[in-house]
Amino acid sequence: MPVPTSDLIAAIAVVAAAALVQGVVGIGFNVVTVPTLLLINPLLAPVPSLLLAVPLTIWQLLREKGSIDRSGVGWILLGRLPGGVIGLVLLLLLSTRVLDLAIAVIVLLAVAIVARGTAVRRTPATEFSTGVVSGITGIVGAIGGPPVGILYRDTPGPIMRSTVAVVFSVGLLMSIGLRAIGGQLNTTDLEIALYLAPGMVFGFAVSGMVKDRVEGPSIHRGILIISTIAATALLLRGIFG
Known about the structure:
mainly alpha, 0% strand
């Protein structure tokens, strides 16, 4: 095992907490895991988090598949493909510091717009644009949730969680495939993901017991808080290295 046991135990706890957040709010798994796991050990993220997020989002989708916004999903996924290609090109050409700063600024601007009360109207254009941005940030930083979460922040919890789950399930597979094509995926990533999987299963199972008690404003605030934390972590990492 390439990661010390102490780092692995800490990482499993982080993954469990992140899966709990994802199950309740609808986004947040990679937002929580990627910056935190990178601080514990650089081998733990971002690719192992991406691999774990695939079964997690499929599980989330199966749990609330009856509430999917089918029209929005199509446009967002259509935008994820060119966004993912752009993200792969940026990943290969630019430094990690520059990419972290760019993603952080984009997410913080989006949060500021929504926090001021500006509604993001869901139209084919905004849904496609959200898919492009989510595709870019999902490839570059393994954090594709905030753009989609912000777009759906005014919807009921089940719609938010199930729709985001569809986008993530397909989008994550795109991200992993593009990373593999670009040589950004290896067997060590898969091994680490398997070791961390029990934490993901535990956290998401617990979320099923509490998710129906969290609705409306709580979910909206949660999305903005999680998005801000992720962007701030990336901004600090970009500034201080």
